[in-house]
Amino acid sequence: MLRGARLLQLETALLFQRALTVALGGCNACFFLAYARRHPRRRLGAGALALVNLALLSESVAFGLLPGLAETHSFVAAAHLAAASLSLAAAASMAALVLRHRLRRRR
What is the DSSP string of 63-100? Predict the structure, then answer.
């Protein structure tokens, strides 16, 4: 019985962690998108950070919240694909920033 109670506490803590990640990722993404509009010279960097936060948000939804709520596996698979695509876009945008920085330093 004690083991089951600990498992329930861990599941509750994990659900809270995922929900908090969704909330914070959404707030951060909104901040960086607004920042990109206000500061055109920082648009690419702010957009990359917004993508990173959207990827964190989508992965928390797809891998943490949806599997327990969704009844169709195809919907969960589509959510996983969307989350993975956002992660790839975030990684690619960060790689573009690094490449741009390195190319500018060589001049």
Answer: IIIHHHH---HHHHHHHHHHHHHHHHHHHHHHHHHHHH
